[in-house]
Amino acid sequence: MLDKDGIAKRIAKEIKDGFYVNLGIGIPTLVANYIPAGINVVLQSENGLLGMGPFPFEGEEDADLINAGKQTITTLPGSSIFDSALSFGMIRSQKIDLTILGAMEVSENGDIANWKIPGKMVKGMGGAMDLVASAKNIIVAMQHVNKAGESKLLPKCTLPLTGVNCIKKIVTELAVLDVLPEGGFKLIERAPGVSVDYIRQATTGKLFADDNVPEMIFD
Amino acid sequence: MINKVVSGADEAISDIENGNTLMLGGFGLCGIPENCITALVKKGVKDLTCISNNAGVDDFGIGLMLQQRQVKKMISSYVGENAEFERQLLSGELEVELIPQGTLATRCMASGYGMPAIFTPAGVGTEVAEGKEVRNFNGKDYLMEYAFDADFAIVKAWKGDTAGNLIFRSTSRNFNPVMAMAGKITIAEVEELVEAGELDPDHIHTPGVFVHRIFQGAGYEKRIEQRTVRTKN
């Protein structure tokens, strides 16, 4: 079973040289720490920055330079800055190769719910609805089950949706799964030491697994 | 050159009235018009509809206007980090319309570009789509979203000149340029106001034609919401 960094590390393997990538808040942010050496990636922050760098050194924070999580950050050689409309223009026109974000639920037809729990204070969807509606490639990073022990991979989402029919891949502490175009979760890899049966029990949606599902390999 | 300079925030916002719709630039607390917010709190104007990506924090930004119950409705994409906001929302004192961030930006843009509506895939199949026209283009569904209609846009820039030309700095640019284009009256507060001719025309982000009033602000706090740093080895 993986910890959050393990999930981030596995997702980082999906990033290809030359990708422009948008990382959501939470586990997706950690992915930046595990981008393999020699791979050139440009991180987009939807508040208006391409080429997001690491956190500034202490004392070098700039209040005018933040990411979409409102954290102080830095630019990198080759960075560019733009307004919010232009930022979502590059998202809508699919110039961003990969979006990685968290979720509360994903359904077997690729619907995602990650912004609202009825009865709880709703903070808003931020840029998530724009990202999932337009991205050509979306990976969800999340825990396989919620705090109540219920599966987050479902036949149908129970929470209000963020987007429909848009998620292609999910990485959890237990597994890597593809969402099949015809519906259902296809088990691609198991976390080290986790059995197919265990994953099946944690998955309420339809799960397809071959006889020999490989374990994840980390370098 | 047409001179857009006013004496300060009080004069700039003097004709904002109860019930007006305002756009306020900024993302979180980054690039917000601090001086104008202070002046609006002082003026005590009420029943405002505020279009802004966020609603500030309890004691800064739009949060200051919420404390004085000046806001009737917030139109935002994300409104966390604000306990007073939550209290007013749950008690029914405050109305909130949450819309996707890209939709928010693009509805501002449409207004500034003179287009009545846009089509976006954001929110298709979700509760955001309720009551909205859906159109299919090339096999994909899009929602029709209307351009905003704001009485005033209030923005914060880094530098500006007496002709109203604006230059923004770093990610404090965010919503400011698109909102600047979208107000019936646009008010710009800047950290540094210079004479027309001192800014390179090639470097202007917002042409002065969109800006009706400009002044040099003072005492910028530029509060940081999430101070994140790394340590030197």
From TrEMBL, chain A:
Ranges that cross the membrane: none
Family annotation (Gene3D superfamilies): Glutaconate Coenzyme A-transferase (3.40.1080.10)
One MF annotation (Gene Ontology) recorded for this entry: CoA-transferase activity
Keyword match Transcription: no
Keywords for this protein: Transferase
Claim: Transferase is one of the keywords in the record: yes
UniProt-listed InterPro entries: 3-oxoacid_CoA-transf_B, CoA_trans_fam_I, CoA_transf_AS, NagB/RpiA_transferase-like
Similarity-based family: Belongs to the 3-oxoacid CoA-transferase subunit B family.
Annotated NCBIfam families: pcaJ_scoB_fam (TIGR02428)
Name the record gives this protein: 3-oxoacid CoA-transferase subunit B
Organism per entry: Pedobacter caeni
Upper classification of the organism: Bacteria, Pseudomonadati, Bacteroidota, Sphingobacteriia, Sphingobacteriales
UniProtKB/TrEMBL annotation, chain B:
Any Pfam family hit: CoA_trans
InterPro entries the record matches: 3-oxoacid_CoA-transf_A, CoA_trans_fam_I, CoA_transf_BS, NagB/RpiA_transferase-like
SMART domains named among the record's database cross-references: CoA_trans
Keyword Transferase annotated: yes
Keywords of this entry: Transferase
Record-linked SUPFAM superfamilies: NagB/RpiA/CoA transferase-like (SSF100950)
Keyword Electron transport in record: no
GO terms of molecular function: CoA-transferase activity
Family note: Belongs to the 3-oxoacid CoA-transferase subunit A family.
Protein's name according to its UniProt entry: Succinyl-CoA--3-ketoacid-CoA transferase
Organism: Pedobacter steynii
